Amino acid sequence: MQTSFNEQEAKKEFQAKFVENFKEKLKKVDQKKGMELRAAGWQLIKTAMRTVIFSFGEVTFSRRCYRKNGVNRYPVDEWLGLEPYERFSTELLFELNNLATEVAYRKAANLFEVLKNVFVTKDTVLKSRKLATQRYEEQQEYRYFKEQENSGKKEVEKIYVEGDGVQVNTPNTETKRTDLSHFVVHEGVEKEYGERKKLVEKHEILEAKNKTAREKVLDYLYNHYQITENTLMITNSDMGKGYMFETFSEMAKAFGCRHEHFWDEFHLVERIKQEFAIFPIEIREPLIESIMKAIEKHSKKECQLFLDTLESLIGDETKQENFAKFSRKLLNNFQYTKPAHMRGFTHDGIGIMESLHAKIASRMKNRGMYWSVEGATTMAKMIIDKAEGTLRDLFCGSWREEYEKYQEMSASAADYLYRGESEVALPKSSLQWWKKV
């Protein structure tokens, strides 16, 4: 069937008309805001042109500049929320980052052009990611300001903390890889609908350095919860470096609360499968089932006897030594394999980290991609925020206006924040407070 209608051309026509209407809107804003400034004693000094790429297209417009006491103001720029010399709108940068959490930078630029009929380059997407890094730093400072004002803390009977690392390729580092430290804090689980459950008050923390992440976990717990000696802190990890029992024990000791730690079941099973790979395939599954039964019964004696027997059957000296090393780790940490029902509570809410990692890994690991440490950290944070539905708030949230007010206070952000060469910016009042407990 032949048709004379060209949808692509029609879309371009509508887009051009929208841009013209938008420019008329800017003229009205310029006039109105200009009248308000003149009434307040500001003098019109010039009219200047500016070109900005918005999410609906590139717009070149004129706006007036006013001066008072040596300070210049462009009311249209302020109304649009544009920083000096910025060529991209905040909404555009948000939408590019939103796409970039799903696909590579170049593909994000191509998709944006197809979907929006607005041309951008992969460098524009990279610029938007760098802006996100800056926004996270500012949002962190803003949160500390707010936490100092908010004295209300929630009392809870149980608090859950889990931690694990996400390894990404960072070729410009010494090791060529970086483990992003990922922690999650929540209050347990509740039914969302049907049999589906969700975590209560879930809060994720991700940083490039394990120490920084742990400090932020402690600071978050301190500022949001009233944790007492009666509170039970339930922790879970893969028992790797930076996530051993001692890591979480220090957190519990900082609050003087009760503590139960778990060796994450998923990672434990995977580690057993890995270590038992040295045995013939025809007997491997029965061996794994046998040791898992001993763990489920929480019989350390039975588990030790089983491991000693297997170790004696290994002929290769190197393999025997590696297996013995694993056996010692399992037996030395056997108490953390004790099932939840034997400890007096359910397993709900324990072992959720792997599912939270999936959204990060699918974007950042499975495609042979490589990152800078800063880029990887920011991208992972954006992926988390997108899943939580809070990514737009990072760029367009009302916190920005309030944050600017804090910056304008006589006591500037620099007076409130300590900055060390290798430390995250923390308020003096809460910096490493737990060391004084």
Automatic annotation (TrEMBL):
It holds the Pfam family UPF0236. Belongs to the UPF0236 family. This is Uncharacterized protein family (UPF0236). It comes from Pilibacter termitis.
